[in-house]
Amino acid sequence: MLPEIIVAPLLTIIASFVFRRFARGVPVWKRAAKWAVYLGVGGLVTLQVGRPWSLVWIWGVPALAVALHVFGCARLGLHPLTAEPRTWRREAGGEDRPKAGS
Predict the structure, then answer these.
(1) Torsions phi, psi of 68, nearest 5?
(2) Which residues contact 76 (CB under 8 A, 6 or more apart)?
(3) What is residue 3's DSSP assignment?
(4) Full DSSP string of 26-93
(5) Looking at residue 25, what is its pLDDT?
(6) Is it true that the peptide bond before 85 is cis, omega within 30 degrees of 0?
(7) pLDDT over threshold 60, residue 66
(8) pLDDT single digits (tens) 21-63
(9) How far apart are CA 42 and CA 62, in angstroms?
(10) Is the pTM of this model over 0.70?
């Protein structure tokens, strides 16, 4: 159980640091609640069903998030790492926003 206790919060800290520029405008309580749920469910999974399934949770949820992010960016015509072009985000759905599927 010790590796899960170290890996999950470490993954949380790294992800929060790397992706903080994309979370502008999101309230702190919402970001904290998201990570609390992730870590809480990870702890419950570890205690209830054991280590192999906790590792599936710890690595599976971020892997699923990355896959959905890359798919969504490709669908909108955005670069998955830089989120460019950014003009449609700034204008909140203005004319520069790429249409899905185009």
Answers:
(1) -65, -35
(2) 98, 100
(3) H
(4) S-HHHHHHHHHHHHHHHHHHHHHH-HHHHHHHHHHHHHHHHHHHHHHHHHHT--TTT----HHHHTTS
(5) 79
(6) yes
(7) yes
(8) 766 777 888 888 888 888 888 888 888 998 888 888 888 888 8
(9) 12
(10) no
